[in-house]
C-alpha cells in the first residue's frame, strides 16, 4: 500500500526533479557544461551523502506486532548551495529521504533546509525551512526548542525536522541578535506497529491534539542574543509558541494514544568557556507551561578536557555532564531529569579521520542507562564507515523501559560527494 504523500513529500520530489532538470540543461555534448551554463552556475556548491544503514537487534521484540528489526535501510541527503558573486544572496537546499523496508513510518521525506538569505553588511534576513541548534552540552541540550525531533531517525533526539521560518538578524564580530517567526508546527515522528524503539502503544500520529485552537498554524516566535567575549560565548534565548515535546493522551473511544502539544513560553541561557585544554559548558531554562503558566526549569553543566598528542598525533577528550529537569509529572515526559553523562573520544587525526567514542548517560536515582559506542573511519575521498552499539537499561515502570529489548548494533556505509 502506498503511503499518503504530505506537503514535504511533494517539496522533496519537486526539489530533486528541478535539480536534475537544471543539471541536464547545463550539460553540453559529451557531458561538458555549456559556457553560458557555467557562467550562470558559478558559485554553486554540491555536497551531501547517500548511505546504507544496517541494524541488528540482539533480543526479540517486546511488543506484539513488532518486527525483528534486522534489515538495511537507505538514506539520501544531498546539499546544494548557491551564493552570488557579491555574497549578498545565498540559496540553500537540503532534502532528505529515508527508505526503510520494515517500518512504514520510518520511510519518510523531509526538507531539512530550503532557504534564501539576504546579507547586507551587519544585517541578515532569511526565510524558508531550516534546522537550528541552541545550547552547549553534548549529551542533551535542554534549551534547544526551535526544531521538532525526527524520532524515527534518531531516538536520542539528535535528528531534526526542517522548521519553516522567517528570521531577521544583526550580526557583528562580538554581538549577534536574531529574531524568528515560525508560522507552522511540525509533528514529531514516531515508529509504527512493526518498528523497534517504540513505546508500548503505537502513537496515533494521524490525530494529534493541540492546546491552541489554531493547531499547527499557531504562530511561534523566538529571539536569540549571542555575545562573543573572547574565550567566553554567551547566548540568551526566548521562545513562545507550541512545545515541541508532546504529552500522550489515551483516547478512551478508540484505545489509541495521541500526542498533545501544549503552549509554552521559555527563557534560556547557555554559555561555553574555553580555558586552555578545558572547555566548560552550562545551560538552563525557565518555562511557563500551558495556558495556566505553570512554571518549571531545567538545565545542565559540563566540562571537557583534551589531552593533545595523547599518542602520536591522536587527541583524547574526556567529557562529563549533569542535566536536570523539574517539570511536574503531568507535563510532557522527558528522559533527562536527573542524569549524569561520562564520555571519551579518541581522535587519531590521521588522513582517514579515524575516531572512537564511548559514552553513557545514567539516571542517578535509579540507574536507567543509555550507552553508546561509535567507531568511524573514512576510506579515500568519498567513503566512510561507522559502526556503533547502543545499550538501554531501565526499569519496566519507566517510559524508557519500553526500549529494554532494543539493544542494537548499527553499521553505516556512506558515500560523500
What is the topological layout?
Elements: H1 7-26, H2 35-41, E1 44-57, E2 71-83, E3 89-99, E4 108-120, E5 123-130, E6 163-171, E7 175-182, E8 209-210, E9 220-229, E10 232-242, E11 247-250, E12 257-261, E13 263-275, E14 278-289, E15 294-311, E16 314-325, E17 338-347, E18 355-363, E19 369-379, E20 383-393, E21 408-416
Parallel strand pairs: 8-12
Antiparallel strand pairs: 1-2, 1-21, 2-3, 3-4, 4-5, 5-6, 6-7, 7-9, 9-10, 10-13, 11-12, 13-14, 14-15, 15-16, 16-17, 17-18, 18-19, 19-20, 20-21
What is the mean predicted local confidence, pLDDT? 90
Low-confidence parts: 1-41
Q: How many H/I helices?
A: 2
Topology pattern, helix = H, strand = E: HHEEEEEEEEEEEEEEEEEEEEE
Shape: globular
Find the count of extended strands (DSSP E, 2+ residues). 21
Major sheet characteristics? 18 strands, antiparallel, barrel
In helices, the fraction of residues equals under 10%
Rg for CA atoms = 22 Å
Instruction: Kindly report how far apart the N and C termini lie.
Output: 33 Å
The structural class is: mainly beta
Description:
By secondary structure, the chain is mostly beta strands. The protein is built from 2 helices and 21 strands. The chain has helices at 7-26, 35-41; strands at residues 44-57, 71-83, 89-99, 108-120, 123-130, 163-171, 175-182, 209-210, 220-229, 232-242, 247-250, 257-261, 263-275, 278-289, 294-311, 314-325, 338-347, 355-363, 369-379, 383-393, 408-416. It has an 18-stranded antiparallel beta barrel. A 3-stranded mixed sheet has the order 8-12-11, with no helix packed on it. Mean pLDDT is 90; it is low at 1-41.
Amino acid at each position: 500500500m502506498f503511503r499518503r504523500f504530505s506537503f514535504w513529500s511533494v517539496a522533496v520530489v519537486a526539489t530533486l526533479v528541478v535539480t536534475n532538470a537544471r543539471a541536464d540543461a547545463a550539460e553540453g555534448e559529451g557531458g561538458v557544461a555549456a559556457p553560458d551554463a557555467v557562467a550562470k552556475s558559478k558559485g554553486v556548491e554540491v555536497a551531501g551523502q547517500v548511505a546504507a544503514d544496517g541494524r541488528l537487534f540482539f533480543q526479540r521484540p517486546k511488543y506484539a506486532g513488532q518486527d525483528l528489526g534486522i534489515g538495511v535501510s537507505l538514506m539520501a541527503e544531498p546539499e546544494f548551495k548557491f551564493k552570488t558573486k557579491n555574497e549578498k544572496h545565498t540559496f540553500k537546499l537540503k532534502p532528505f529521504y529515508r527508505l526503510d523496508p520494515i517500518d512504514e513510518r520510518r520511510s519518510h521525506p523531509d526538507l531539512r533546509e530550503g532557504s534564501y538569505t539576504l546579507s547586507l553588511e551587519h544585517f541578515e534576513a532569511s526565510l524558508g525551512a531550516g534546522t537550528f541548534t541552541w545550547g552547549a552540552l553534548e549529551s542533551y541540550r535542554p534549551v534547544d526548542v526551535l526544531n521538532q525531533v525526527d524520532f524515527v531517525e534518531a531516538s536520542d533526539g539528535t535528528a531534526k525536522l526542517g522548521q519553516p521560518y522567517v528570521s531577521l538578524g544583526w550580526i557583528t564580530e562580538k554581538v549577534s541578535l536574531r529574531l524568528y517567526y515560525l508560522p507552522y508546527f511540525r509533528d514529531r515522528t514516531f515508529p509504527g506497529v512493526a518498528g523497534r524503539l517504540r513505546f508500548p502503544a503505537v502513537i496515533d500520529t494521524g490525530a494529534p491534539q493541540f492546546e491552541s485552537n489554531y493547531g499547527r498554524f499557531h504562530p511561534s516566535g523566538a529571539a536569540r542574543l549571542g555575545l562573543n567575549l573572547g574565550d567566553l560565548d554567551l547566548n540568551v534565548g526566548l521562545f513562545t509558541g507550541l512545545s515541541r515535546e508532546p504529552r500522550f493522551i489515551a483516547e478512551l473511544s478508540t484505545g489509541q494514544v495521541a500526542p498533545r502539544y501544549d503552549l509554552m513560553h521559555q527563557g534560556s541561557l547557555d554559555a561555553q568557556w574555553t580555558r586552555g585544554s578545558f572547555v566548560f559548558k552550562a545551560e538552563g531554562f525557565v518555562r511557563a507551561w500551558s495556558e495556566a503558566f505553570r512554571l518549571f526549569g531545567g538545565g545542565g553543566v559540563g566540562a571537557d578536557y583534551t589531552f593533545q598528542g595523547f599518542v602520536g598525533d591522536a587527541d583524547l577528550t574526556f567529557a562529563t555532564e549533569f542535566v536536570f529537569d523539574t517539570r511536574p509529572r503531568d507535563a510532557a515526559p522527558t528522559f533527562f531529569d536527573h542524569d549524569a553523562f561520562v564520555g571519551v573520544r579518541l581522535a587519531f587525526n590521521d588522513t582517514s579521520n579515524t575516531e572512537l567514542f564511548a559514552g553513557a548517560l545514567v539516571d542517578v536515582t535509579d540507574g536507567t542507562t543509555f550507552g553508546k559506542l561509535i567507531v568511524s573511519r573514512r576510506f579515500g575521498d568519498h567513503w566512510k564507515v561507522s559502526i556503533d552499539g547502543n545499550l538501554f537499561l531501565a526499569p519496566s515502570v519507566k517510559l524508557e523501559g519500553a526500549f529494554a529489548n532494543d539493544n542494537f548494533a548499527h553499521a553505516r556505509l556512506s558515500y560523500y560527494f
